[in-house]
Amino acid sequence: MNLQERAHLTSEIAMLNDLLSKTPKERVIHRKGFEARLRAVRELLDSAPEQTEAHSGKVLFRGEPIVGTHGMFASFAGRAAHAFSEAVATVTEGLAGTLGNMGPIAGGDRSRLLITGTATGSFGFAFEVPVEPTLPGYDGPGSVALAIPKIQDLFSEASQGEVESLADIVADIHPRAVRKVREFLDVLVEYGAWCSLEYQDRPFAFKDVSEVQETCFLLRDENMAESDTTVVGVMEGILPTARQIELRVPEEEILRLRIRREIKDVEALKALMDKRIKVQLHVTRLANRKPRYELTAVPELA
């Protein structure tokens, strides 16, 4: 049950109590009707799971499938809403560190993205996502609340061709999540549409469908490469809050490693400072730029 539904039931309980207080006792049938409804609403409210705080946003579409501020074609609306929900769910799992390279998304659509109504300005939909506990390495909200800002960042950096910063986002959310975001954009391109995405008063907007096409081109699979490797080096620095390690490898190059979220006790890694260690890495490369490295397991002494 979302916050709006809970508020509606609470309001109905107050209204029914008011009606009962104003209904004379001799009007037995009316009172029994109000009392029966009051019991039903209270049981529904009591049995509903407690809803966490929710954040709201909206997606507005423009282009060929949109009819002014009046509506949009149903075939486009269904595919776009489904693709956007899948993108949010997959980015959520990527940020939580539970997204595999294939197979079902862990826990299904854990994003619980809820469409709450239509949005005008052009035409689109309003939505809510729940705020969850904080993820390791983040001072702010949980993975669901972070997923949509990450999608906005991905749109922004890709549409502007900022490959270096885009590579960091790809490494952070997982290339599979990037593919799901691109699939949402592919739907827009197919229908000749573009969109804006507003979340918690933070906006992003594509200028036109050609900008969506350019973003899709940069995010295609040919521009993303992943691999796993093992290297030996000396740990020269660690930033527990930022979840990063600096590793000097034999060629005297210093690699900056992100610490995967499955590794819970980051503070314990301080014991490896200035020691020669063997580390398992996941390497992400975007458009032949400098690769990003992620530490996937607790290092061992070499």
**What form results from the Cα inertia axes?**
flat
Largest sheet, strands/sense/barrel? 5 strands, antiparallel
Tell me the radius of gyration. Answer: 25 Å
Proportion of helical residues: 25-40%
Q: N-to-C SSE series?
A: HHEEEHEEHHHEEHEEEEEE
Q: How much of the sequence is in beta strands?
A: 25-35%
Alpha carbon gap, first and last residue? 52 Å
Strand order of the largest sheet: 4-5-1-6-7
Low-confidence stretches: 137-141
Return the average pLDDT rounded to an integer.
83
How many β-strand stretches? 13
Structural class by helix and strand composition: alpha+beta
Based on the model shown, name its key terms.
five-stranded mixed β-barrel, alpha+beta, 302 residues, five-stranded antiparallel sheet, 39% helix
Outline the structure in words.
- This protein has 302 residues and is an alpha+beta fold.
- Helices cover 39% and strands 28% of the residues.
- The chain contains seven helices and 13 strands.
- It has helices spanning 3-22, 28-47, 74-96, 143-159, 163-173, 175-191, 209-218; strands at residues 54-63, 66-67, 71-72, 114-120, 123-130, 193-199, 202-205, 224-239, 244-248, 254-259, 276-286, 292-295, 300-301.
- Strands 4-5-1-6-7 form a five-stranded antiparallel beta sheet. A five-stranded mixed barrel has the order 8-9-10-12-11.
- A hairpin with a 5-residue loop joins strand 11 (276-286) and strand 12 (292-295).
- Helix 1 (3-22) packs antiparallel against helix 2 (28-47), helix 4 (143-159) runs antiparallel to helix 5 and helix 6 runs antiparallel to helix 7 (209-218).
- The longest helix has 23 residues, at 74-96.
- The termini are far apart.
- Residues 137-141 have low confidence and may be disordered.
